[in-house]
Amino acid sequence: MNKTYEELTIYTNNIEFLSDFVFSFEIDAIEEKNDCIVIRSDNSLNNLIFALNELKKRLEDNNINILINHKLEIKENKDWIDEYKQSIKAIAVDNVYIHTTWQEEKEGFINIKIDPALAFGSGHHESTNSCLRLIQKYCKDINSALDVGCGSGILSLLLAKQNIKVDACDTDELAIISTKNNFLLNKLEFNNIWQGSCDKAKNKYDLVIANIIFDVIMIIKQDLINALNKNGILILSGILIQYEERIKSQFLDFILLDEIKQGDWLSLVYRKKDE
């Protein structure tokens, strides 16, 4: 064991987006907090810091409002992986219980096991939490679903637990690997999964979920709509409340069924009108 380790704290207003980005690097442990992500590693984090600076520059150039500030510290080593495991809390979202491989299942709940290389936080972020609640509420009479921007696959896993035929996609290859691993971990099967976005979907779905940032939703709006069956349900999440009027103005042709506001985040449920 090295005498010291590096601890990188990333302050952001979009924990989920940054977690997905950081997860694409070989990191020993990632801990999500309210306004930051804490990364600890026995190895140098210089490559990650360089990538964060490049990402920050790219976001600013495209006027995407995601805060990224970071602080690097060198700390005395100890058995911080075990300490980290002890700090992780399982989470219950209505009837769903999300836990790690080192935590026990909870009787009477839909149990979902997640262990993405010690990067745990699925369900804790407000937008994912809202999606989990909305899936449980609107999964009745749903036979097929597409999870756009699947990340670690937490939403796809819940859909599969409801005996729904699930397709998933993500532009990040590491997210695809993570989702596949988590399906194996839970002994579940998906119908199809691919690297890319919903424009590659070959089917139409009763339910389409996009838990991604506002700017990306706007870019792929028509692809999301095209992927919906007649009278299909569309769940949009990962939207900062400051964009509420702008996002709603883009879906006036849809029936707004529901909305959840948690913290700074907005989730919307639409039904495609009968054509």
UniProtKB/TrEMBL annotation:
InterPro entries per UniProt? Ribosomal_L11_MeTrfase_PrmA, Ribosomal_PrmA_MeTrfase, SAM-dependent_MTases_sf
Q: Which Pfam families match?
A: PrmA (PF06325)
Name the positions where S-adenosyl-L-methionine binds: T128, G149, D170, N211
Query: Does the UniProt entry include the keyword Ribosomal protein?
Result: yes
The reaction(s) catalysed by this protein are: L-lysyl-[protein] + 3 S-adenosyl-L-methionine = N(6),N(6),N(6)-trimethyl-L-lysyl-[protein] + 3 S-adenosyl-L-homocysteine + 3 H(+)
Please tell me which top-level EC class this enzyme sits in.
transferase
Q: What Enzyme Commission number(s) does the record list for this chain? A: 2.1.1.-
One GO biological-process annotation of the entry reads: methylation
Q: Where in the cell is it found?
A: Cytoplasm
Function according to Swiss-Prot or TrEMBL: Methylates ribosomal protein L11.
- This one is known as Ribosomal protein L11 methyltransferase
Q: Name the gene behind this protein.
A: prmA
